[in-house]
Amino acid sequence: MNSITIRRPDDWHLHLRDGAVLASVIGDTSRHFARAIIMPNLVPPVVTTADAKAYRERIIAAIPKGDRFEPLMTLYLTEHTDPDDVEEGKKSGLITAVKLYPAGATTNSHGGVRDMEKAMPVLERMAKIGLTLCVHGEVTTPEVDIFDREAVFIEEKLEWLRRRLPELKITMEHVTTKEGVDYILAADSNLAGSITTHHLIINRNAILVGGIRPHYYCLPVAKREHHRQALRRAATSGDARFFLGTDSAPHVDPLKECACGCAGVYTAPNTMSCLAHVFEEENALDRLEAFTSLNGPAWYGLPVNEETMVLEKQEQPIVYPGKCETEAGAITVFDPMFPLHWRVR
Ligand code: DOR
Ligand code: ZN
Pocket of ligand 1, candidates 15, 46, 74, 173: which has the most ligand atoms within 8 Å of its Cβ, to mutate? Predict the structure, then answer.
């Protein structure tokens, strides 16, 4: 097969940042994707419907001319989030989901939730009005090894929340473990998972073998090979509970290449080429569309895109620019460590 046509894809987890970086990175997504769920972990975070409305306007203003792209906005859950404001955001059509960052789990998460009990009034309202909770599923307890943080979160926090509030729709974002995949497969309703491009391609060796490679460091951190294999099976299975959320997370190089580098992998420019490669390797090109374009809209109750995208396989490897230049500095693009032959026409 040298060419496939799929419905235009969506990205169900994306960081666009703000200001100069937003202006430079948005085209890498809007070129290929019709919609994306936009993460709210700005400095300061997007905590109210008014914040989300203002951020949405800045995003719309930055979309390159000629591209059709719809940002789907989220709110950053805090212990003080007002349930009425959340409900208003959902009713007005502005808010697609609310994001739970356990405090301290990742980039700019210090304003996140420490005590889940304090967030219950908002979560109960969300369950009532059918608004999805997107979860960064890692515990932050210092005693828990960083490679175990997702599995422990599932056991200690997610299971507790799902028992407490079974009506709440939860997206377990950027699943990185077999435990995460199995937990989603075992649930009969109200739980789905997004999977990133890079977690289908790298395991933890990419970060640590032969020298420390900061551009492969993200959170949740990539795990052992058998976890990557479980993610590949889930993504390519066609199971409607799994869909693409790239977690494309740009940081300028000086913030990655230093003594205490930021977490995040910038995959927006070459994600579709990488995914076509992965799905071809798994003999599952016929299921790429489900993962990138069908399962996500079904889960979020949105229509699928009418436009299509053609991916063509060419003999010569495609050369993507290794960097995205921004006014704030260069951002290194994800290197899958294999040549890419699938091009978006
Ligand atoms: O690697 C990551 N980068 N993981 C996150 O959860 C946040 C993100 C970011 O904002 O840079
Ligand atoms: Zn993220």
Answer: 15
Beta bridge partners of 309: 6
Q: 260-292 b/e with 16+ CB inside 10 Å = b?
A: ebbbbbbbbbbbbbbbbbbbbebebbebbbbbb
Task: Kindly give, in sequence order, each residue whose CB lies less than 8 Å from that of residue 144, ignoring residues fewer than 6 positions away.
Answer: 152
Cβ atoms of 251 and 264 within 8 Å: the answer is yes
Which CATH number is 112's domain given?
3.20.20.140
Separation of alpha carbons 214 and 220, rounded Å: 14
- H or E element: which one contains 52? helix 49-62
> Chain-centre distance of CA 166, in angstroms?
23
Mean local confidence (pLDDT), 227-255: 98
Residues in Cβ contact with 35 at an 8 Å cutoff, skipping those fewer than 6 apart:
10, 11, 69, 70, 71, 72, 302, 305
Mutation pick for ligand 1 pocket among 38, 218, 252 (CB with most ligand atoms within 8 Å): 218
Q: What is the largest CA-CA distance in the chain?
A: 56
pLDDT at 104: 87
Q: Which residue segment(s) compose the domain that 187 sits in?
A: 3-344
Query: Which residues belong to the annotated binding site for substrate?
Result: 15-17, 41, 136, 219, 251, 263
Round to whole Å and give the CA distance between 313 and 5: 12
Angle at 247 between CA 243 and CA 251, to 5 degrees: 165
- Alpha carbon distance 135, 184 (integer Å): 13
> Closest residue (by CA) to atom 10 of ligand 1?
107
- The whole-number average pLDDT for the span 306-315 is 98
Among the ranges given (104-118, 169-183, 263-277), the one the predictor scored with the smallest mean pLDDT: 104-118
The tally of domains found in the chain comes to 1
Rounded Cα gap, residues 192 and 209, in angstroms: 32
